[in-house]
Amino acid sequence: MIIGLTQMLKDDFGIDFKNTALLDEAFTHASYVNEHPREKLKYYERIEFLGDAVMQLCVSEYLFKRYPTLPEGKLSRLRAAMVCEDSFSKFAKECHFDEYIRLGKGEEKANARNRASLLCDIFEAFIGALYLDQGKAVVVSFISRVVFPKLDLGWFDHYLDHKTELQELLQQHGDCKITYVKVAENGPDNEKEYTMAVYADGQKIGEGKGMSKKAAEQQAAFQALKALQKN
Amino acid sequence: MIIGLTQMLKDDFGIDFKNTALLDEAFTHASYVNEHPREKLKYYERIEFLGDAVMQLCVSEYLFKRYPTLPEGKLSRLRAAMVCEDSFSKFAKECHFDEYIRLGKGEEKANARNRASLLCDIFEAFIGALYLDQGKAVVVSFISRVVFPKLDLGWFDHYLDHKTELQELLQQHGDCKITYVKVAENGPDNEKEYTMAVYADGQKIGEGKGMSKKAAEQQAAFQALKALQKN
After folding, report:
1. What is the predicted ipTM?
2. Is A94 part of any known ligand binding site?
3. Per residue in B123-170, pLDDT tens?
4. How many domains are there within chain A?
5. Would an 8 Å CB–CB cutoff place B75 in contact with chain A?
6. CB contacts, 8 Å: B22 with chain A
7. Confidence of residue A231 (pLDDT cuts 50, 70, 90)
8. Which residue of A has its CA nearest to B79?
9. Are residues B166 and B226 in the same domain?
């Protein structure tokens, strides 16, 4: 058993693994298995195969429901931005998964522990193990904490431009004047929070907060889109 | 509502759709929406985005569990063979989905109804609608009937060579003599069924049936692999 891993998952994420052999599999690299032939260990690749598909579905379903009018092309671009090596390696690091990987000596020396591709694999493998051990609802709850909040933090904003989408929606049947107005600016200089409102032909249709004016405008546009879709 | 579709799903698959609007969305092409602007219809692309991910997970999970020792590379190749335009368009046709697609006149003339890419899209969109309306268990039950049996029919055998896998497993720790022996040959000439047994160093380890000797040998190897994995 990998020392400390089950305890960390319990302490940090409230996850109580039943079958810890799945966890061992998810955190074990082929190089470690090769160095310990007598232990008949499994390495993470099969379980990563499953975890990859679990992530695809959970992220797809979340995006599909969160953005009920976003066209397929934008959903796909956003999913590709979230389900990728760059994002997953960051999530793995944030969860301290790097500290628990079982590596062979050669790979350890080659600093594989900090390699983005390996961290990404381990994150997917962990998701596969979590899915098998605890089911989809627990996976969704885990990624609701680790992955989805990054949308609100603006990690993927360059893939999703709410302001452009709002403009397209409002101007599809003719002209409409859209303006963004600063409502508030709070906090110290290095931790400023802006509140921006968006107006369509002089009528307020949304408000949002952010760490920059631009981020707050995107949030305001997003809130306006949500409100318009309800009508 | 698309005439006959809900009834067909009830009669042929025992599926009782609650929200038939999802079905309409899944079977409606953008060209039809464009020709009927007043009806404010949705076309299938968003729901297909979801259905694609649902298929990925359901097929991955099935393969992961059915082949507990198959390495990741083979699992991925097999999944790619199953989750692809060629397979999905055949499944769509087999389910008569082509008869229910709502197309614009131009696309109808261009014979889009029989285009593999469109049939594939519709199959994925249907899976997305089924998932939203009935949940994953019903999707699994549907594809257990439409998709998974194709594995046993040998549709994907060229992606999965059980005989080679058995040989690799048996000979990993040294030499082992593997032989295939015909046990039976039944039925008329045009519908022959062969039964083949596989022996390892003279001991029988598996038996399988098939429409050809080769298919029966693959089945025998597959059964031997299953039995060996249990030990």
Report:
1. 0.74
2. no
3. 999 999 999 999 999 999 999 999 999 988 878 877 777 888 888 888
4. 2
5. yes
6. none
7. low
8. A49
9. yes
List the CATH number of the domain containing B86: 1.10.1520.10
The sign of the dihedral angle between the CA atoms of B97, B103, B109, B110 is: negative
Active site residue B124: yes
* Cα torsion through B68, B73, B75, B77, rounded to 10: -160
Domain with B168 in it: 161-230
Q: Which residue of B has its CA nearest to A60?
A: B50
3-state class of B32 per DSSP? Answer: helix
- 3-state secondary structure at position A184: strand
**Cβ B24 vs Cβ B122: under 8 Å:** no
Question: Does residue A136 contact residue B54 with C-beta atoms inside 8 Å?
Answer: no
For A146-186, how does the pLDDT look when each residue is reduced to its tens digit (9 = 90+)?
999 998 887 887 777 788 888 888 888 778 899 999 999 99
Domain boundary among A125, A154, A183: A154
Name the token pair of B157: 């055998």
| Average predicted confidence (pLDDT) for chain A | 92
Residue B74 has pLDDT above 80, yes or no: yes
B33 and B144 part of one domain: yes
Same domain? For B13 and B109 the reply is: yes
Cβ distance A71 to A160 under 8 Å?
Answer: no
Q: For residue A175, how many other CB atoms are within 10 A of its CB?
A: 7
Using a CB–CB cutoff of 8 Å, tell me whether A48 touches chain B.
yes
Judge if A150 and A167 occupy the same domain: no
CA distance B137 to B66: 17
Tell which of A102, A136, A154 closes a domain. Answer: A154
Q: What is the dihedral of CA A116, A122, A125, A127, to 10 degrees?
A: -90
Q: Is B25 a catalytic residue?
A: no
**Helix, coil or strand: residue B2:** coil
Judge whether B49 is closer than 8 Å to chain A, CB to CB: yes
Contact B197, B220 (CB under 8 A): yes
Residues B87 and B115 in one domain: yes
Paired with A197 in beta bridges are A181, A207
